[in-house]
Write a structure and sequence with these properties.
With 340 residues, the chain is an all-alpha fold. It contains 9 helices and no strands. It is rod-shaped, with a radius of gyration of 49 Å.
Length: 340
């Protein structure tokens, strides 16, 4: 196996170096948009180089589940980073129509890297929930209400994030101090091995963070897709399902309520004959005013004329009384009683 790796090493090393260099350029790029043609062209080149390198690693069987970390050659440790770099470059694709596909693909790359590291005992971490073979800690017999937050899990997650951040800063400082020796070729094998192990540990923290971010975005995308596919139901109750309301009218007193009835002028509560009989009993009109054979309209008109005549006679009598009083009482007569 090592002979094949050595024979194919330069080609494999070049592909890894190209993919990593393009990823670093994208990380430090000053392009205003990640969707710029130049940026996406680098993403495609980097993915192509890393995918070809990963295929060669699989063909050479550089890593096996049945070996320990000490059995892996120091020069081959850097190829363990291939799945993590593939996941990082996959996330830099900006095709919105395939965003969910890219997220799921990147998640698989990061998980493959974490499983590989877990198999070789690199780093102390827990794989994300939902991974095959990984069970969440806790008693399965005590189901938790999904509406209630798991405070213990939140506290553990927060502590783990803080610890990962501290480790990341320490690793970056160590890598910065060792990179010049490794790149110049002056480092010995132990330094080279430590350098690659530190790089792997740094990418373990990065992969865990990226998977957490991916899972949050996938939840949003799945909810959006489910809302689009759901059939559009009625926004409110149909007209036929609504309970009809009985019309009503507000009146000042009970007498008005009895007269107006349901509140519609077009719905009479008594006939003209009934109304006439009621007025006759009240002494407003006399029975002689009723003309046999007259229609209801004529009777209403006759009653109106009678009332107007009675009002005119009453007003005329008041005016006559007032004239008589003025004839017998001089002007100002009423104010003389208060004179001293």
């Amino acid at each position: 196996m090592m002979a094949e790796a050595g024979a194919s090493g330069p080609r494999l090393a070049e592909l890894l170096a190209l993919g990593r260099r393009l990823w670093e350029e994208l990380e430090t790029s000053t392009e205003p948009s990640s969707g710029a043609p130049a940026v996406q062209d680098k993403v495609r080149q980097g993915l192509d180089a890393l995918q070809r390198a990963a295929a060669m690693v699989a063909q050479l069987e550089l890593f096996s589940e049945n070996e320990e970390l000490e059995e892996v050659a120091s020069a081959d440790l850097k190829y363990m980073l291939l799945p993590a770099l593939l996941g990082a470059l996959t996330l830099k694709q900006v095709d919105l129509s395939r965003r969910r596909e890219h997220l799921e693909s990147a998640r698989e790359h990061f998980l493959r890297f974490l499983k590989l590291c877990r198999n070789y005992g690199l780093g102390s971490f827990q794989l994300p929930p939902g991974v095959s073979g990984e069970e969440e800690t806790g008693s399965p017999s005590a189901p938790r209400d999904p509406a209630q937050p798991n405070l213990v899990a939140m506290a553990v997650s927060r502590t783990a994030k803080i610890e990962r951040y501290k480790q990341k800063k320490e690793l970056e400082n160590k890598l910065a101090s060792m990179s010049s020796f490794v790149e110049s070729g002056t480092a010995d094998e132990d330094q080279i091995r430590e350098f690659y192990v530190l790089q792997i540990q740094k990418w373990i923290g990065t992969s865990l963070e990226e998977i957490e971010s991916i899972d949050q975005e996938l939840v949003i995308l799945r909810s959006r897709d489910a809302a689009r596919q759901a059939p559009a139901g009625p926004r409110g109750p149909s007209r036929s399902a609504r309970i009809p309301m009985k019309p009503f009218i507000l009146t000042r007193d009970a007498a008005q309520a009895r007269v107006f009835g349901a509140g519609y002028p077009g719905l009479p509560t008594m006939t003209v004959d009934d109304w006439y009989e009621q007025r006759r009993r009240q002494g407003v009109v006399s029975s002689t005013h009723r003309v046999p054979g007259a229609s209801d309209e004529e009777l209403q008109k006759q009653q109106q004329e009678t009332e107007e005549e009675e009002d005119d006679e009453e007003a005329l009598q008041k005016a006559r009384d007032w004239d008589d009083w003025k004839d017998t009482h001089p002007r100002g007569y009423g104010n003389r009683h208060n004179m001293g």
